[in-house]
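2024-03-11 09:14:02 INFO worker-7 job=invfold-0412 stage=load source=structure_tokens
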């Protein structure tokens, strides 16, 4: 009986994807009946104010009967995002050169800088107003 318990959730095949503060684990595991399923785990590192850190983890269990639909929807959603926003990363958090790129764009056009200043002034004037973007 002990031998059976050790076989449950046994990692059969694993891959790791490190992505900044996040790490994704893809693990093929075995059910009690000896069939395989996939777990996808996300582990994200957070830092406390005192410098110590901790991880938050989330896990998805994906079974064979759902593979085709899951794959289709994942493909559709990723295609939609790329079609709408392109492959360029537009986030300071996820692109280490974001600030540098942003700086180069600002230098390239004085008109853009003036427009930005005007926009910032308008935002300051409307600071008491709440918009959906603020929520």
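2024-03-11 09:14:09 INFO worker-7 stage=emit residues=135
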């Amino acid at each position: 009986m002990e031998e059976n318990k050790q076989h449950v959730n046994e990692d059969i095949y694993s891959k790791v994807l490190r992505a900044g503060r996040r790490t994704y684990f893809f693990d093929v595991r075995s059910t009690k009946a000896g069939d395989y399923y996939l777990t996808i785990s996300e582990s994200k590192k957070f830092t406390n104010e005192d410098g110590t850190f901790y991880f938050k983890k989330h896990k998805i269990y994906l079974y064979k009967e759902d593979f085709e639909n899951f794959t289709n929807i994942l493909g559709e959603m990723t295609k939609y995002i790329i079609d709408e926003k392109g492959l360029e990363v537009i986030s300071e958090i996820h692109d280490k050169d974001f600030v540098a790129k942003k700086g180069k764009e600002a230098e390239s056009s004085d008109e853009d800088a003036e427009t930005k200043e005007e926009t910032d002034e308008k935002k300051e004037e409307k600071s008491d107003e709440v918009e959906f973007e603020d929520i």
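2024-03-11 09:14:09 INFO worker-7 stage=report msg="Strands lie at 11-19, 22-30, 36-47, 53-63."
2024-03-11 09:14:10 INFO worker-7 job finished
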